[in-house]
Every structure is written in C-alpha cells, then in structure tokens.
Amino acid sequence: MAQNIYDDPEFFAGYSRLPRSLVGLNGAPEWPALRAAIPDLRHSKVVDLGCGYGWFCRWAAQQGAAWVVGIDISEKMLARARAATTDAAISFVRADLGRLGLAEGAFDLAYSSLALHYVMDLSGSLASVHRALVAGGSLIFSVEHPIFTAPRRPGWLVDAQGHKTWPINGYLIEGPRQTDWLTKEVIKQHRTLAGYVNLLLQLGFSLSHIEEWGPTGEQIAARPSLADERQRPPFLLIAARK
Amino acid sequence: MAQNIYDDPEFFAGYSRLPRSLVGLNGAPEWPALRAAIPDLRHSKVVDLGCGYGWFCRWAAQQGAAWVVGIDISEKMLARARAATTDAAISFVRADLGRLGLAEGAFDLAYSSLALHYVMDLSGSLASVHRALVAGGSLIFSVEHPIFTAPRRPGWLVDAQGHKTWPINGYLIEGPRQTDWLTKEVIKQHRTLAGYVNLLLQLGFSLSHIEEWGPTGEQIAARPSLADERQRPPFLLIAARK
C-alpha cells in the first residue's frame, strides 16, 4: 500500500496552501499542456486517479462528461472534494491506486495528475486501467519527471554566476526515494522514463505523445522564477491509447 | 550539413583506438541491448546510417541479410569499411545523414549507432527513413542520451565520499552543444527524449521499445569502471516500426 502522506496534518496544511490547491487547475503551470492532450469529453466516462480536491473531476463534468469517478486514498482530500460539488455526474471513491478494482471497459479516459509516482505496484495499477478503458480509450497522466525524482539529494546547485544545475545520480536505480517536501519523509517511487514508456507498451497501450514539461516563454514572463525549470523538466506528461 | 568530425585527423586517430573501433560490435557495451531489438535479418534489406568501419553491415550480412547499404559522411571511415569486406551483398555510400535520398520502400530495417546526434535536420532525415522502409519495417537506433548531451559542462562532480553526480542544465533547450571529445570543438545536437519520441510519432512510426542504457551487473563485474554509468544513462536506444 502506498504511503498516504496527504492525510499527514503537516503535509496537508502545506499542500492546501499551494497555488494548485487554492486556484485549481489554472494554478498548475503544466495544466495547459495536459489539457491540450485531453480529447472531447462530451458524453464520455472519466476516471481521475488521485483526484485530490476534485478540481479535474468538476472540470470534466463541465466539459460534458456523462460521469466522472474521482479516486483518492486521502480522506481529507475526498471530504473537500465532496463538499465542493453537488453534481450528480461526479462520484468520489476512496481507494489505494495500487489496488484498483475498476470495472472492465467502463471508461473513455483515465486521467491522473502527479499521483502515480506514489504508487508502488504501478504495473498492477496500469494493467487495471488498461482493462477499465474501452478500445480507443485514452490514458493521460503526469508524474514528477525521472530527472527530478532520481537524485539522492534533490536541490539546485548554484555557481558563482548564479547558474543553476540539477545533480543527477542514481537515475537507473528505480525504487523509493525519501524527500522532505511539505513535511519530512515523503516517499515517492523513482522510475526511469523508459520504465514508464515500456510498461505502457507491454500492457498493450500505444504511445500518443510524451512531454517533458517546462514553462513557455509566456509563463516565464508572467512568473520569472519558473525559468529555472527549463534547466531540467519537473514533470513528465504521457498520453497513450488502448 | 553536419560537421564531418570523423575526418578530422586528431578525432579519427582517437576514435580508431576506442574498443568499439578495435573490437567491433562486442567492444560497445550497449551492443547486446541493441542486438536484442533487431528482428530476424534473413533475406532482409538493411541500411546503416553512420556505418563507420562497417562492423554492423558485415554482421547484418552474416545474419543473412539480402543486401546491406552502409552510409557515412566520412571518407576515412568508408575507406576502412570498404577494405574490410569483399561481400557483394554490402555496399557503402558516402552521404550526409541530414540529406538522405533513400529509395521508397527499399528497406526492412534502418539501423543507426551513435550517429543521429550529429544530424541537424533530424526531422528531414527520419522522414526520409520512414519513406524508405516497407510497411512493418523497423527503425532501431542509439544516440547519446539527452541527459548526457544537455549540460554546458559535461563531466562528473565527485564529492568527498567519491559519489558521482552528473550536472544537468539546459535540458529543455534543444540545439548544438560543443564538447571536447577526442578533439576540440566536436558539435553534437542536443534533443530531449520527448523530442526524439514525438518526432517518430509525428512521422507515423509506432514506438516499440526505448531503453535508457546502463550496464548490467555482469558487465560491471567484468569492468568495474562501468558502474558510474548507472548514475545517469550514457545512451538512449529506440526501436520503432512503420
């Protein structure tokens, strides 16, 4: 079972103050890139793996999805998600993403934002997603980029000129990484980029698009601190089809 | 036109002394991984992009390929390649990989080892390869890994405990990188991993497998200095089908 860090009080308090928590999808700089990969949702059935506050579920319902299921392991997140909508097309379910028991052929789109790097048995989880999609259905997800998750000691090195460098090591050694992000001892699973892609191919997905996300020039103009993210991508976005 | 560094006397002399030049395919630690992706070559037509000394061309002919075309821009490499075989199934052609004019549907396999990172117009080059493959044909290639090519100053950082770290910067900024490898001012093109993959998908290839190559435990046991390569992958191998 994955660590349920989101129900840790310190983590939850920190997470609640992030722009993506306060503002929703538009508070996440990678959202425009993810959104661009999402097909027309009218009359479609959608599952959101690691739905958090349910921002994406509500957006999907607004786009005309027939029904939307948000899944999360965090009671606190789900309580907020449920309190934020009365839309009968949306339902929230508590479950471990590593132990999904989704109905066969139930969904047109499986979506996941920055959640799958917490899952230990990703192969089992994505096999369940593959079964749960209709033929031609889409899986679209983001995770922390493997370059971001690899290092023993993640954090910028800054030289005398202020140039930033990201210290890679352990890249090919997949497995848990413990970091201090919002609270102590948050455990994420480091996987290589090839690890993600080959798992999808082995499960029978075909790859549609991958993006090693970095900010656009426009985003950097609006928020200059984002410029560092072009030195190494913080997020990996993947779109695949069954 | 790509820089023809292989005809530089200092570079050529250095390259000639590398294990992969002296021993051939088995002198390249990534060869077993590349080989595993190669389909049965009996009666097939093969093109090798950046064939160098022609080791792969000769191997492909030994595997039963009906004919093999080796392409390279370096006169010196081609002279050695031609001198090393009298096999009528093999021919060598001098051409710039950035300006390929391959016949339509002429090949079952396009192969390339550590050459495409020299090509400026990779899109034009791989579009030509796509046209030149039969339906169901394979493209299998290796390049220096984007993590390897990205940095302004490539080279290990070593801490007091001897731990090695690779300094990433400029990863999302694609374009030329000038390094000193075997001689001064060798120019390679840095592309992101997503850049390679999405280019293939846009051209109509489907992705079969990618590998961020690192040494196996057995290889490290035989040659302990290879262990560092698990800290960050030196090579990217990609297999795709038309």
Task: Give a description of the structure.
2 copies of one chain form a homodimer. With 242 residues, chain A is α/β, with parallel strands linked by helices. Chain A has a single domain (5-241), classed as Rossmann fold. The first copy, chain A, is 28% helix and 30% strand. The first copy, chain A, has 9 helices and 11 strands. Chain A has helices at residues 9-16, 19-22, 31-37, 55-62, 75-83, 122-132, 146-149, 193-203, 217-222; strands at 45-49, 67-72, 90-94, 107-113, 133-144, 157-158, 164-168, 175-181, 183-190, 206-213, 235-241. Chain A has a 7-stranded mixed β-sheet with strand order 3-2-1-4-5-11-10, sandwiched between helices. In chain A, strands 6-7 form a two-stranded antiparallel sheet. In chain A, strands 8-9 form a two-stranded antiparallel sheet. In chain A, a hairpin with a 1-residue loop joins strand 8 and strand 9. The first copy, chain A, is globular and about 55 Å long. The model of chain A has no long low-confidence stretch (mean pLDDT 94). Chains A and B meet through strand 7, helix 8 and strand 10 of A and strand 7, helix 8 and strand 10 of B.
Keywords:
two-stranded antiparallel ribbon, homodimer, 28% helix, alpha/beta, 11 strands, 242 residues, 9 helices, Rossmann fold
